[in-house]
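ERR on first pass: missing label on line 2. Operator R.T. fixed the label and resubmitted. Corrected input:
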Amino acid sequence: MLVRSYKDVAAVPYAEGVEKRVAIGPKEGAPTFVMRIFDLGPGRSSPYHTHDWEHEVFVLSGEGVLLTEDTEIPLKADDVIYIAPYEKHGLKNTGQGTFRFICLVPLRGEDVP
Amino acid sequence: MLVRSYKDVAAVPYAEGVEKRVAIGPKEGAPTFVMRIFDLGPGRSSPYHTHDWEHEVFVLSGEGVLLTEDTEIPLKADDVIYIAPYEKHGLKNTGQGTFRFICLVPLRGEDVP
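pass 2 clean. output:
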């Protein structure tokens, strides 16, 4: 059993202008999936890529877009995103402040940028 | 690819004074784990129980406690909770308003109260 504010988890650099917190992961004993929290600075993006596992995302704050092969979908707080395996995707901050979201992956998707 | 506010997902009764939204689950194609959002009315609890799968929880709003075998741990917005398989647990609303949290489980934990 573990209870803590995600804000008490150290944020580590992930890409330029992007930080990541692993709130619940292998270190905490998570056997199936991992809860990470990402902060994107203004104008910053997560990698535009594809892989054979899914993402489940919950937007906490800020404004951004989901980049897909065809379009850009606007994102705001309280939005949830399901990205299926093999779907090309990236998330980009289009606002003035931090764009923060929870991004969950199965164990094998953790630590693979 | 699916983007929507979790608030646009219909909340369904789960227990007395408890409602549940399945934001991302089997219907959306989730292959590994399920994102549910629970609303507990004042004084209401989720079942105090145990099972062989884990929970990963993110508290969105309100005030509550995590009931464990030994103690009650206070909960507030931005807290994350990891409940390991077989750990006895329940969540209870101790505030005046709604206690709302995201609760993720592996697929086989969905639809088992």
